[in-house]
Specification:
It comes from Amycolatopsis rhabdoformis. This protein is mainly β. It has five domains: about 180 residues, Galactose-binding domain-like (Jelly Rolls); about 90 residues, Immunoglobulins (Immunoglobulin-like), CATH 2.60.40.10; about 280 residues, Glycosidases (TIM Barrel), CATH 3.20.20; about 90 residues, Immunoglobulin-like; about 100 residues, Immunoglobulins (Immunoglobulin-like, Sandwich), CATH 2.60.40.10. Helices cover about 10% and strands about 35% of the residues. The chain contains eight helices and 49 strands. The protein has a nine-stranded parallel β-sheet. It is globular and about 90 Å long. It starts with about 45 loop residues before the first strand and ends with a strand. About 55% of the residues are buried. The structure holds beta-D-galactopyranose. Beta-D-galactopyranose binds next to loops.
């Protein structure tokens, strides 16, 4: 077992001179890390590799970007990386608000030196300066979009030294940070520094495809087409014939192809299009059947294929109208949650598998069909997973409740450009957030960003969430060619405690979407497992009510509630640096509040019975049991509820109050008198058949620890990571929130613990997780053992292969 680096109290591994990062000829061979799967951004060519494991890392000191800097004592870390170890709460921005440096030594094959070469950083917080072999190559301020730098002619045939200076400080002139307040608690999310997304080096020929955008035209008509916009970048003018060939295939079968010839390719960038027609056979992408397509463009010079650029996309028609949202011509109510990208222990620095997992949780556990990437562009792996799973996406520029000065605004426009160019092939994305969350006015700036979006992607509308009475009534932004959506963060409060929260009516004459609701601004300020059962129950009811309202009126395109996952913040209503509005906690474990979402699926996808109470008669729960209006979420037609020793009670869903929810709540009297602590059984019936039976024990004697890994196997590359959940449960597996004591976690075998080895299980409400990362080139069995003073010891095993 090894402790997490860097800054780990355990002795870190350190670097040594001239380790090499080796690119094998014609193939991807990375001696210091596995090949990143993000190689399609942009298209890989001859020699490509990801810089993953084994970066040398430390505080920035004078000379640390020089070639001959003595880096032998620097600890080794792997990317994705956060500059400081973090816990699951109590983050201190002072820990990451410094200057840092990452170094890599690597060898490249001769081919890469003959051709053009590029470095690409997918995400570095908060500002980056790149040095290669002692020369400053590029810099960027802003941590959510890629930095690509050409390094042609700068690679040597000996040891190459890449040094990346990372400024982890508040960037007051860069979105989303605020110019006036150099204060990391001034916005509602922490942004810990580091190279937290992939880094790749790739080579291209002298003339290559630098971008491909597959624009869909009239998808629902017989004249459906894909106009493939191609950018060719040539180091020098090309005399011979240049041809672009585009093909579109689905499930391995080519459906269409077309060519465009370029005569006299000039030096620099040339934009042209290839139009693919005859696409009747293409199956449309949909939320229930996300049929993807492959569009592949090949560049040939003088009859010889020199470069290929594949993009994955899907054909679908998404329309926001004054009468609601339509996907492929059919009305679809958007049913969504907002997502922040932060995790315990590492901030944003989780690799692809873990990013994808969030999408799986949203789709498969919470049954949403839409996610808003609040409030910045998120990981490419998360968006790829949304494409593959059929989740619709709102992506927005970095920003939160503030617009800065001219220089800040120029960067905001840059961000809109870079976001759309990075992500416009994703079929999942249906709307661009081109306006900073909860800002008013700014007609000049948003005129620019909306115009830019219309030019870069005529397919999708623009939006921006506004809030409050002023936002609701402010004049609309002029609608550009690609239309617009009015999005409102609706935090309307209920008239009294326990009354249903209202929603404002849709604004007249515009497509209307609720972009946030509930959160911590309606109802209790925190929704934690350690809060009273009433508070946790209320969270699920508040979410149910706002979705009920949105479902009841066809003019709402839908509602995206606040929010999916708890997140780190030092702002209003945070507690020791964590905000608790998620229906799923920071560790991605569902709370009682998630019960409403979990039940909103067809029973054919699996029956659900989720009480919004704990059957524990414990400290947070009423002594007399869950009471007269005990709430149960289920997708069954009927529940038969039996308290041991009593007559079974049959309960029906509350269609009277929740007439527009697919699966309304069930309310049942579960008052228990006396000292008896009987078992509870809930049986779910669909069309008269019992489809699920769940039992709940009030007797804590048999409580146990459930330890489970999300994945049975991960890749032994020093980057791949999976989660291990640690939950206190009753003898039947139902959650127990009142576990006391400290949980200790140990890892045996070739795995790195990303997490605290000792967790205060009481403060966590008996549910937590750690993540396990593989070690490079070290296959084997990883065993995670969790022990607790009162509960059994639990283990999970993961194969590193
Ligand atoms: C909203 C904001 C969200 C979050 C929320 C607080 O106004 O858009 O980002 O801060 O308040 O729960």
């Amino acid at each position: 077992m090894a402790a997490e680096e860097p800054g780990s109290p355990a002795a870190p591994k350190t670097g040594h001179a001239r380790r090499t990062f080796l690119f094998g000829a014609g193939a991807v061979i990375a001696a210091s890390g596995a090949i990143s799967a993000a190689l399609t951004h942009p298209a890989p060519v001859e020699a490509t590799g990801g810089f993953g494991a084994d970066w040398q890392f430390g505080p920035f000191v004078p000379g640390c970007t020089d070639v001959d800097f003595d880096d032998r004592a620097m600890p080794l870390v792997s990317v994705p990386h956060c500059v400081t170890p973090l816990s699951w709460q109590g983050w201190h921005p002072d820990d990451w608000q410094h200057l840092w440096v990452y170094r890599q030594h690597f060898l490249v094959p001769p081919q890469l030196r003959k051709n053009r070469a590029f470095l690409r950083f997918d995400g570095v917080l908060s500002a980056t300066t790149v040095f290669l072999n002692g020369r400053r190559v590029a810099s960027q301020s802003g941590g959510y979009l890629p930095l690509t730098c050409e390094v042609t002619g700068m690679l040597t045939d000996k040891d190459n030294v890449l040094a990346v200076a990372v400024d982890g400080r508040w960037q007051q002139d860069t979105p989303p940070d605020l110019p006036e307040y150099p204060n990391p608690t001034a916005i509602d999310f922490y942004q810990p520094a580091g190279i937290y997304r992939a880094v790749n080096l790739y080579g291209t020929p002298q003339a290559y495809l630098s971008d491909v955008y597959a624009q869909q035209i009239a998808v629902l008509t017989p004249s459906r087409a894909v106009v493939v916009h191609c950018t060719v970048d040539a180091a020098k003018a090309v005399k011979g014939p240049v041809r672009l060939t585009a093909t579109l295939s689905q499930a391995g079968t080519e459906i269409a192809s077309a060519v465009t010839d370029i005569t006299g390719l000039r030096k620099g960038e040339t934009n042209t299009t290839v139009t693919l027609e005859g696409l009747e056979a293409v199956k449309l992408w949909d939320v229930d059947d996300p049929a993807m397509c492959d569009v592949v463009v090949t560049l040939s010079v003088g009859g010889r294929k020199v470069h290929t650029y594949p993009v994955r996309t899907g054909l679908r028609d998404a329309q926001f109208t004054v009468d609601g949202f339509r996907l492929n011509g059919r009305p679809l109510k958007l049913f969504g949650l907002n997502r922040h990208q932060w995790y315990p222990f590492v901030g944003g620095a989780m690799p692809e598998r873990v990013q994808r997992r969030d999408a799986e949780i949203l789709k498969n556990e919470l049954n949403v069909n839409m996610v808003r990437c609040s409030h910045y562009p998120q990981s490419p792996a998360f968006l790829d997973a949304c494409d593959e799973l059929g989740i619709l996406v709102w992506e927005e520029l970095p920003g939160w409740d503030h617009v800065g000065d001219t220089a800040w605004q120029e960067l905001a426009v840059r961000d809109v450009h870079d976001m759309i160019v990075r992500d416009r092939n994703h079929p999942s994305i249906i709307v661009w957030g081109t306006r900073v969350n909860e800002t008013l006015g700014q007609y000049t700036l948003y005129g620019k960003t909306d115009q830019l979006a219309a030019e870069l992607d005529p397919m999708r509308p623009c939006t921006g969430a506004v809030a409050g009475q002023k936002g609701y009534v402010q004049p609309l932004y002029p609608v550009k060619e690609n239309g617009g959506v009015f999005s409102f963060n609706d935090y309307s409060r209920p008239p009294s405690r326990n009354a249903p929260p209202p929603l404002r009516p849709p604004r007249h004459g515009v497509p209307y979407l609720v972009s946030e609701a509930v959160g911590t601004l309606v109802g209790a300020p925190y929704f934690r497992r350690t809060d009273s059962a009433d508070v946790q129950r209320e969270q699920s009811m508040l979410h149910a009510w706002v979705h009920e309202h949105a479902a009841a009126d066809p003019r709402y395109c839908g509602l995206i509630a606040w929010c999916g996952f708890d997140y780190p913040s030092g702002w209003y209503h945070s507690l020791r640096g964590v905000k608790y509005p998620g229906v799923v906690d920071f560790f991605r474990i569902p709370k009682l509040g998630a019960g409403f979402y979990r039940a909103q699926r067809s029973p054919s996808r699996g029956a659900v019975i989720e009480p919004a109470f704990y059957w524990d008669f414990g400290p947070g729960s009423p002594r007399g049991g869950p009471g007269r209006n005990a709430l149960i979420w289920s997708n069954c037609d009927q529940l038969v509820v039996t308290v041991a020793g009593r007559r079974p009670v049959t309960v029906l869903p509350d269609h009277a109050r929740f007439g527009h929810l697919k699966h309304p709540p069930f309310l049942v009297n579960l008052t228990v008198t006396g000292q008896a602590r009987p078992d509870l059984t809930i049986e779910g019936r669909v069309k008269g058949q019992t489809v699920l039976r769940r039992r709940f024990s009030a007797d804590p004697t048999f409580d146990t620890l459930a330890v489970a890994a999300d994945d049975g196997a991960i890749t032994a590359d020093g980057q791949d990571t999976t989660r291990v959940t640690l939950r206190s449960v009753d003898r039947y597996g139902a959650p127990r929130p009142h576990a006391h004591g400290v949980l200790s976690v140990a890892v045996d075998g070739p795995g790195i613990l990303i997490g605290d080895p000792f967790l205060d299980f009481g403060a966590l409400g008996g549910a937590a997780a750690v993540w396990i990362r593989s070690m490079r080139d070290t296959p084997g069995t990883i065993t995670v053992t969790a022990s607790h003073p009162f509960l059994d010891t639990g283990t999970a095993t993961i194969s590193a292969v």
